[in-house]
Structure formats: structure tokens, C-alpha cells
Amino acid sequence: MIKIDRTIKPAELTDDLKTQLTNKYKTDGTSVWNHELLKVPLLHMSHKKCCYCECNIAEESKYMEVEHFYPKDIYPDLVVDWANLLPACKRCNTNKSNHDPNQSKIINPCQDNPRTHIGMKLYRLKGKDEIGSNTIDVIYLNEIERLVYPRFQIGTEVQESIEDILEKTKEYYEGKSVSTRRKNRIVNGLKKIMEEGRPQKEYSAVVASVILNDNNFNYCKDLLINLSLWDDELIQLESVLSNNSLDIL
């Protein structure tokens, strides 16, 4: 889970339309939130990922649902309130169900920074406080087959890629292979790995955490700094990853 920046309310969602849709829901329970004018901007707001588990909800095998942070059954006046809507996968939305954050607080990805409340240990999310623990339990964010195993897979792939880049970097540093081509492959290869921890990528919080806490990555970084190859783009990527990463507990 990462922090999501709430975009401005869609222009089409005028106050009059909001009132009409809210009244219709209160009258007959129509799924008034199931509109493209809401779903499309929500999907783009989260980089086409579930706001909770970070799975890609733009894939054919998955399905985006409009999640009401404050449940519509309890707070019907917020049924199409833009500040109350989030994009979620069907599983996370179902797991959260009618949980009332006013009764038991959980993370709102558009208001809270998840890394304040959640860390990671062995690819399982761990609560750093009651809010984090509540969030993990309510949304079931440690489902083994659906979430923990994919995190492990992508984390292992990232570590293997870093190890490969480190070997090339050591050879370059020791003067065994110092061609411009080799230098570019090292720098661009590391950038490609780090880009997988950007907010647009699936499971970016896990990837960013794995990269920044990997000893081989930090060794590689030190070598590149000594070679004056740690450029502005790498510095920027590291900053982005730092904002996305979770503490390893």
C-alpha cells in the first residue's frame, strides 16, 4: 500500500448531479456510483491499481470496484462524495465490506501515509500501530496465495537482478571491463530495476522496500558513487523509492 494523491473532483460531478444520485440511492438503492465519470478518474488516480493491495485492476482477469471508505449503507449521504471514493479490487472491497472507520480506524490511502502505520517482514505486512494492524486484518492484506506469494516472487526477481548488476559493476570498478557499452548497461540496468518501485508499478511498496534494504544494491550504489556514475536520475529514483518504501521489521 502506498500514499495516493487525491485528484480534483470530476467536473461532470456537479452539485446538482451529486444530489440527484444520492437521492436516487436513498430511494431505491440503485448503484449510482457505478458510472464511468467516477470509475475512470479513480482508476487513473491510483495508477490503475487497487488502493489497498496494489494489484493491477486494469487487467482482464481483475475487476475494479468503487470502494466507499465510509460505507454507503451507514453513510448514504457520502455515496457519491468524491472524497469518500477509492478504486479497489473486488477482493479487497469485499473484505472491507461495511467496516466503519469511525468505529475502528484503518488507513485511508488518500489521507494517511501507509508507511507510518505498516511495515514488512518476510513479505508479510506488519502493523506498526493499531491502525496498521486493523487495516491488515480488515482487508486481509496477508492472503498467502493472492498477495504474499506474488510479493515474494517479484521481490526475489528484483534481488536477482540487483545481484547481476552488482557483478557487472564490480568488474567495471576493478578495470576488467571498462567499455562505454558496459558502463551504460550497468547504469541503465539499475535504473530499470529501480523504476519497478515507482508508484505506477504493481506492488511498488514491496519493490521499493526490497531494493532500498538490499545489501547488494547499497554496495552497487557505493561503487557507482566512487565511479562518479551515480547521476541525478538515480538520485531522483532513490528519492521516489524512499517515499514508497515500508520499513523492514
Automatic annotation (TrEMBL):
It holds the Pfam family HNH. This is HNH domain-containing protein. SUPFAM superfamilies: His-Me finger endonucleases (SSF54060). One of its GO terms (molecular function) is nucleic acid binding. Residues 50-98 form the HNH domain. The lineage of its organism: Bacteria, Bacillati, Bacillota, Bacilli, Bacillales. InterPro entries: His-Me_finger_sf (IPR044925), HNH (IPR002711), HNH_nuc (IPR003615).
